[in-house]
Amino acid sequence: MISKFSTVYAGHVDLGDMGQMATPANERRYPNAHLASVFDKTEAIARCMDEHGYHTLWLAEHHFQHEGYECLPNILMMAVHLAHLTSRLRIGCGFNITPMWHPLRLAEDFATADILTGGRTVFGVGRGYHTREVETFGSPMLDAEANRELFEEQVEILMKAFHSETFAHQGKHYTLPPPVPYRGYELRELTLVPRPLRQPVECWQPVVSASTRGLDFMMKHRIKGLIGGGAATMAERSINAYQEAAHRAGLDWKPGEGLSLGIFFHLAETRERAIREITPWYEEHVKMFGPLGFVPGLTPEQNAAAMKRGGWAAAGVPTVEHYAKVGAWFAGPPEELVAYLKSLEEKFPGLEYVHVSNSMGTPRSVMLEQLAWFAKEVKPHFAGRG
Fold it and tell me: Most exposed among 14, 127, 328, 376, judged by the fewest C-beta atoms under 10 Å?
């Protein structure tokens, strides 16, 4: 049963003009002071979620985005800061992009955050999807197979470092430790200092393609999965594939178990008003994520149209109503969202986690209003479940 509600905030600043007739995504550029406002906005969201009993605020690691869309470069530092401002809220790494890290530096930083926040930092790993970010840090993104190969070796190292008193690793990309002399002996093993106090480490990863290889790797390390963003429209296929991978790993998991399902939402007194209000933010979402392949079903021609001002209807770019019909977006009154979530419970009886998120571009004031409204009129219908 659904019992834990979270949100994903990738770190967009308030954008000003939004929608298909507003500034094209690649033409957006903000001054440094406005980009830095992402920290105040994140603090306000965290305080609101903590006050209203949300489970986890998932933050995303991104770099170099002068367009203002994803402006949080270090979510572990942010997690430690937010833990000082809140009392219960967990801060999730959704996600640390491991190809942009040395795995042992990432392991040390998370262990530090785990200890300093009393276990309220949630670990998460991802392969990345921005070439500007991953390739700039010297790792492959254009070569998807090389990216996955590097990612899998890094996760193997992370898990060894987290869960073993001493460890060593020999792989294609890393020899840890290097066989060097050290204080009178040859170095053959390492100890992560400190290791996370919460053992075993809870780890999450995005489920996007839901490939057999990727899901089996997640099961090997008991990694939980977030389904959201572009993958939400394929939720049923991804949920079924994840369950099948669990069964291959010898786990008798129900549909939805071990997963968090994502929904973009906007509440209003009527569906018509909600659609009207959310449309410019949905269109900003398409402008940003469409060319990156995270708006399912868009043709090359529709993506080209989304990168320009106007002309979306002529190109057949789907409206928010289309994605509302397939369940990835919700716009309407609270009671209809309660009914929709109840239907998900019936369909996926193992589903415990749901993350309800505001679309890219949603202003700070609206995000706070929506999170409070959801907490007051939707969350109580799922209270007292653990």
Answer: 376
**Residue 321 within a domain:** no
In a domain, 282, yes or no: no
pLDDT at 328: 80
Tell me which amino acid residue 372 is.
A
Q: By residue range, what is the domain housing residue 107?
A: 4-273+327-382
Q: Are 245 and 218 in contact (CB under 8 A)?
A: yes
Instruction: Assign residue 98 the CATH number of its domain.
Output: 3.20.20.30
pLDDT confidence band for 234 (50 / 70 / 90) = low
pLDDT in tens, 58-92: 999 999 999 999 999 999 999 999 999 999 999 99
Which helix (DSSP H) or strand (DSSP E) does residue 90 occupy? strand 90-93
Q: Is residue 309 part of a domain?
A: no
Distance CA 346, CA 116 (A): 39
Interacting residues of 200 by C-beta distance below 8 A, sequence separation 6+: 162, 163, 222
> What is the Cα–Cα distance from 76 to 86, expressed in whole angstroms?
15
Domains in the chain: how many in total? 1
Is residue 124 situated within a structural domain?
yes
Residues 6 or more apart in contact with residue 164 via CB below 8 angstroms: none
Nearest Cα residue to 98 out of 168, 163, 148, 57: 148
